[in-house]
Amino acid sequence: MVVASPRVGLGAFILSLAFGLAACGDTSGPRAGLNIVSGAGLSDTVLSTFKPPLTVQLLDGNRQPMSGQTVYFNTNGFVLASPIDDPGFVTDRLPVITDASGDASVWLEAKQWAATGKVVIVAPSGQSVDLYYTVLPGAPARVRADPVDLYVGGTVTFRPYITDAYTNPLKVVPTYQYQSLNGALSITGSGKATGAAIGRGSVSVSAMGFTDTVWASVVPKGRIAIQEAYIVATNLDGSAFDTVPTPWSGRRSLDWSQVNGTFVYDVNASDYRSLISQDTSGHARTVVRDPLMRNEYYPRYAHDGSYIYFTGIDSLTTCWGVWRVHPDGTALEHMVADTLDCGPYARPTARASCTSVAGTSRTSVASSASEPLRLGPTRVSGSLVSFLAGPPRANGSRTTAWGPSC
C-alpha cells in the first residue's frame, strides 16, 4: 500500500505511487496458466527419447500450483508422448494429471522420419502452448540412387546419396564408385551413364562400405499418350510432358494416327455420335455423322491413316459388326456383320472372340451367340497408346494388327 506523506511534495508522491504500482504489476517469473519447466525445443536422432522429459507447471490466478488437473499432450506423429512411469507406451494424445506441485511430465520419443515434431499442450481452461522438436537422421546405413529413363545413345548422370536405415538422406558427400552390370548401359567414373541398347540397364553404386543397384530403362525414341481425366502425352524417356485438353469426359479406347496427327476415341454421347477425332490442340469433332448409325466403339486407326476401324451397330441391320470410315467421316463401310448379335436390344456387353483385321482388308472374324463382335484395343495399363508407327512391309505399306478387347 502506498501512503502520501505531508512532508513530501506532490511530484515526489506521484513518483512513489508509480514505483508502487510497478511493484504490484511485476510479471517476471511463473505466470497463471501453463509454464514450461524443462524439455522444450530439443533435437535428437530418429527413434531417440528426448531428454530431459517435457515438464509443465499449471498455476492458478494467484500463481499457486493447481493439482489434480488434466493436461493434454498432443503430437503430430513425428514425435510421440509416453507416461513417465511407462515409457514403452507411446501415443499422439496423452492426458496427464498434475501433481501437488502442479507439474505434468511426459517422455517424448522421435519416430523414424527426419522431420520437425510438434507438441501442443492444452490446459483445462483451453489455453495451449506449441513446442517444436527437431528429429535428425540416424547413422549412415545405405547408398541410394534413383532409377532413370534414357534413349539409346542418350546420357544421364546418376546422383547417388547416403541415407540412414530409414531412408532419411544424410548431408555427407563421399566418393562413389560405379560399375555397369549389363550391356544395356555403360558408365564412367563420374556417374555419367550412356544408353547402349534397348532394355533394362543396371549399375552398382558403392560408397562408405555400402552398395546399391540402380536401374535405367533404355528406350527407343518415341512419344506416348495416356488417357486419364484428360489426355497426357510424354516422350518415352519421360521428357516433354504435356496435357491435351478435351471437351469430353468418360473417354475410352484412345488411339493415335502418326500420319494425321490426331487422336480418336469413343464417348457416351447423348446424340449417339460416339466416335470423336481430336488434334493435339484440343479441337474435337464427330467422325461418324450417318443418322442410321446407333453406336460406335473401340476405334483404331490403320497405320497409313486412311481409315478408322471400329465396332458399331446401325438401324438397318441392327447387328453389331466391324465398320470403317475415313478420318474425315466419308466412305462409311460395313465390313463384317455379327449376325448372331442382332435386334433392337443388341448391346456390346460381352467379350469378343475375334482373330484379326490386317491393313485395310478383313482377314477373319468370328463370334459366338453370347459374345457380340467387337474390334477392341490391346489393353495396356492406363489406356497407354504408342505414337510409333508399325514396321513397314517390303512394299512400303504398314500392317495394323487388331486384338479382341480381352
| Average pLDDT for all residues | 81
Count of alpha and pi helical runs: 1
Sum up the overall morphology in one term: elongated
Overall helicity:
under 10%
For the report, how would you describe the main beta sheet? 5 strands, mixed
Strands ordered across the widest β-sheet: 2-9-8-4-6
What does this structure look like?
The chain has 406 residues and is mainly beta. 4% of the residues lie in helices and 44% in strands. The protein folds into three domains: 33-136, Immunoglobulin-like; 142-219, Immunoglobulin-like (Sandwich), CATH 2.60.40; 223-386, no CATH class. It has one helix spanning 10-24; strands at 33-38, 43-45, 49-59, 70-75, 79-83, 93-97, 103-110, 115-122, 128-136, 142-144, 148-151, 155-157, 161-163, 177-180, 185-187, 192-195, 199-207, 210-219, 223-227, 231-235, 242-244, 252-257, 262-266, 275-279, 284-286, 293-301, 308-314, 319-325, 333-342, 356-358, 361-364, 384-386. The chain has a five-stranded mixed beta sheet with strand order 2-9-8-4-6, with no helix packed on it. It has a four-stranded antiparallel beta sheet with strand order 1-3-7-5, with no helix packed on it. The protein starts with 9 loop residues before the first helix and ends in a 20-residue tail after the last strand. The relative contact order is 0.08.
